[in-house]
Design a protein that fits this description.
The chain contains eleven helices and eleven strands. By secondary structure, it is α/β, with parallel strands linked by helices.
């Protein structure tokens, strides 16, 4: 990922918000703008006071200590957070990564017009420290479960690493069993052609794995991709809100993931009866055209919002195989084995979740 220095907003949106028309977001807005959908941004925090995010950010939670290190202490976030102390978390996003991600998902258009789902709400959960890193994947797992319990419909993870995490895998299972779609970036590599494997958690079969493309709709050369990539989204030279005000140009699969998460929010808003698995399938089935290293192709929000699930072709063997390879879900009320439809799917479509812990 890369963030350029903050620049003035004037005249910028026409130059750098190219992702909005590219994925058909403006056409999708005729049907849905993300209203009623909550997207959890598990990241470096979110500047809730940025004009593009005014009114979009819910109270959240931080897993980062006052010293800027990830740890077990929980600190509240939000525009009205901790007025009587804890100045270290008064500005929720010291590195700006999460604010850019949130703006690309649900920016209200205060200056950049960058949000794919401008009526969605953002649930900020900070797990990245002042160096934009996390020490323990178990904390990210806790953050995912907490976000699910708060009613998130989509969870965006613009983070990851080379090693599997059983704790984070269990949290993804927890989200899937409660009808929450997890979207994650495939990762970035330092050199073109390095051939690195898709990061975890994106390579978990229950996650929508998103790589990045440039304006020509070709994979960004240092965006990681392999046969576990589900689809692609714009991820180069995107105009996004900067923490503290202004705007930044953002590049990386982190931001492609945000664009895809915004598209998922539009689908969940337009077709709330669809389960998380069905939303994932609709997004991949309507993406395109296919190309080297971009999975099913570039996300098409307008086509996904308008899709009739019953008229789409059956899920391809590769997707079914990925689902069947995943760990089984608990057989309890409101859950189902991966890929199972029927009566249990109706429970999933009811979107019932346990009360917050």
């Amino acid at each position: 990922m890369a963030l350029s220095p903050s620049l003035p907003a004037q005249g910028s949106s026409a130059v750098s918000s190219w992702h909005v028309p590219t994925i058909g977001a403006e056409r999708a807005w005729r049907t849905a703008t993300g209203a009623g959908v909550t997207v959890a941004v598990i990241d470096s925090g979110v500047d809730a006071d940025h004009p593009d995010l005014a009114g979009a950010v819910l109270p959240g939670r931080s897993y980062v200590t006052e010293a800027g290190r990830t740890g077990p202490r929980l600190l509240a976030l939000g525009a009205d957070r901790r007025r009587n102390g804890d100045e270290a978390v008064a500005h929720a996003d010291p590195v700006g990564h999460g604010t850019a991600v949130a703006g690309l998902i649900a920016g209200r258009g205060g200056g950049s017009g960058s949000g794919v789902a401008p009526a969605a709400e953002i649930l900020p959960v900070r797990v990245l420290d002042d160096q934009n890193r996390y020490d323990d994947s178990a904390l990210v797992a806790d953050a995912v479960e907490w976000a699910v319990d708060q009613g998130a419909d989509v969870v965006n993870l613009s983070l990851g690493g080379h090693y599997d995490s059983p704790a984070l895998g269990s949290a993804i299972e927890y989200a899937a069993a409660r009808d929450v779609l997890v979207v994650a970036c495939t990762g970035n590599q330092a050199l073109e052609g390095a051939g690195e494997s898709v990061w975890f958690p994106a390579r978990d079969p229950r996650v929508l794995a998103v790589t990045g493309v440039d304006r020509s709709l070709r994979r960004w050369p240092t965006a990681i991709s392999d046969d576990r990539t589900d689809l692609a989204a714009p991820g180069v030279g995107l105009w996004a809100p900067a923490a503290g005000g202004g705007y930044k140009e953002a590049t990386g699969t982190s931001f492609a993931s945000a664009v895809a998460a915004g598209a998922a929010a539009l689908v969940r808003s337009a077709q709330p009866e669809l389960s998380a698995d069905e939303v994932k399938y609709v997004l991949t089935a309507t993406a395109g055209p296919e190309g080297p290293g971009i999975g099913a192709g570039v996300v098409d929000a307008a086509a996904a919002v308008a899709a009739d699930l019953d008229r789409l072709p059956p899920q391809p063997f590769e997707l079914r195989a990925r689902q069947e390879a995943s760990a089984p879900w608990p057989a309890t009320v409101g859950t189902a084995a991966a890929g199972l439809l029927g009566a249990v799917t109706l429970l999933l479509r009811a979107r019932r979740r346990p009360a917050a812990r």
